[in-house]
Amino acid sequence: MASRLYGFGVIGCGVISDTHCDAISRLPRARLVAVADKNEQAARSKGEQWSCEWHTDVAELLARDDIDVVNVVVPSGLHAKIGIQAAEAGKHVICTKPIDITLEAIDDLILACRRNGVKLGATHQFRSYPVFKRIKNALEDGRFGRPLYANAFVPWYRAPEYYAGSWHGTRELDGGGALMNQSIHYIDLLLWMFGDVAQVAGFADTLVHDIEVEDCASATLRFRSGAQGLIQGTTCTYQGKPARLEVHGELGNAVVLGDQIQLWEVEGDETEWNPTAGSSGAASDPRHGMIGLAVQAHMEQIEDLIEAIEEGREPLLNGLEARRAVELILAIYRSSAEGQVVSLPLKPAP
Ligand SMILES: NC(=O)c1ccc[n+]([C@@H]2O[C@H](COP(=O)([O-])OP(=O)(O)OC[C@H]3O[C@@H](n4cnc5c(N)ncnc54)[C@H](O)[C@@H]3O)[C@@H](O)[C@H]2O)c1
């Protein structure tokens, strides 16, 4: 198929929609055609901001012939529902994280996209940050030797106002808290770098915020490879601190704080990695996580979806790939609720 311009529609006009609209607008093969939100004010102002059409009825956006791809950026528990509607309207789908909050909903979405012959992609932007790509590549090249530990500590903070009167922190639409909404970025990185987890033991508790889901969680992992790992994710840390990712192998160690490399120690690697020149060099807001380079990372992942359409292949970050982090998080919740070590998979992937 010859390359052409792809029309995009963005459903959900809240906080993250700007990143998607911005990324689409910068891609040479993409055109932002319309946005939709059930809230008229949100839809109108987003349409005006990005000089595109706007709708308050999702079905109206989906009925448009000039839209090929739909970006789903509504609250997490609605991703599959809206994604399935889009697939049934013949649109390719790209979902923000988490792809949805239950495996049943995610699997329905994956199957709906298959049935309708459309692509399903997801955005987990941290995979596109240079600092994490470098670690992933070095692991794949065997430069760390046998991988031993992958640890993610995410001591972020969210103010009470973030949750008050919002879908955030609700079981129905957030599906979880510090893990499902925030630390999922790092949980996805651990799985991407170290492969699937075989067993997990976790605790998920609500210690500070007045919410239905966890605001403090910890987990110990055993990967299928035999490597081990730790996760700590919270939205309660005093003043919020940058997340820390640690990777240790028999032949190397890497530590990233925020988006800056703190330690790069790989046997036989004489290069001195200059963190500011070589990494994303982006602004890091410890309260809200990394924000720099987010648009560029989204561009890369949306562009991959376009290439997947043209090449008739799966997007790199497809539905099954995005499902992995949600499955691990759900396993941590189960472990905490049952007081047991939980084995994965929880449910066979479709
Ligand atoms: N990748 C990232 O870094 C990142 C950052 C923030 C949020 N997110 C994800 O993006 C999603 C949205 O988060 P947000 O912070 O933008 O939320 P938000 O509350 O700011 O915006 C959500 C919007 O969706 C609209 N909406 C709700 N139900 C709808 C429906 N049925 N039809 C049409 N519109 C509907 C709301 O009116 C609201 O304007 C969540 O899944 C979240 O996890 C990802």
Any idea of the CATH class of the largest domain? Alpha Beta
Q: Report how far the terminal alpha carbons are from each other.
A: 28 Å
Please work out how many helical segments DSSP would assign. Answer: 11
How would you name the CATH homologous superfamily of the largest domain?
A: Dihydrodipicolinate Reductase, domain 2
Low-confidence stretches: 274-291
- Overall 3D geometry? globular
Would you give an account of this structure?
With 350 residues, the protein is an alpha/beta fold. It folds into 2 domains: 119 residues, Rossmann fold (3-Layer(aba) Sandwich); 187 residues, Dihydrodipicolinate Reductase, domain 2 (2-Layer Sandwich). It has an 8-stranded mixed sheet. Strand 11 and strand 12 form a beta hairpin. Helix 6 runs parallel beside helix 8. The longest helix is centred in the last third of the chain and has 20 residues. The two termini are 28 Å apart. About 5% of the residues have low confidence. The chain binds nicotinamide-adenine-dinucleotide (NAD). Nicotinamide-adenine-dinucleotide binds next to loops. The site of nicotinamide-adenine-dinucleotide has 23 residues, from loops.
Write the layout of secondary structure elements.
Layout: E1 6-11, H1 17-26, E2 30-36, H2 40-49, E3 53-55, H3 58-62, E4 69-72, H4 79-88, E5 92-95, H5 103-115, E6 120-122, H6 130-140, E7 147-155, H7 160-163, H8 178-194, E8 197-205, E9 216-223, E10 228-234, E11 244-249, E12 252-257, E13 260-266, H9 275-278, E14 284-285, E15 289-290, H10 294-311, H11 319-338, E16 342-343
Parallel strand pairs: 1-2, 1-4, 2-3, 4-5, 5-6, 7-10
Antiparallel strand pairs: 7-11, 8-9, 8-16, 9-10, 11-12, 12-13, 14-15
Helix pairs in contact: 1-10, 4-5, 5-11, 6-8, 8-11
The protein binds nicotinamide-adenine-dinucleotide.
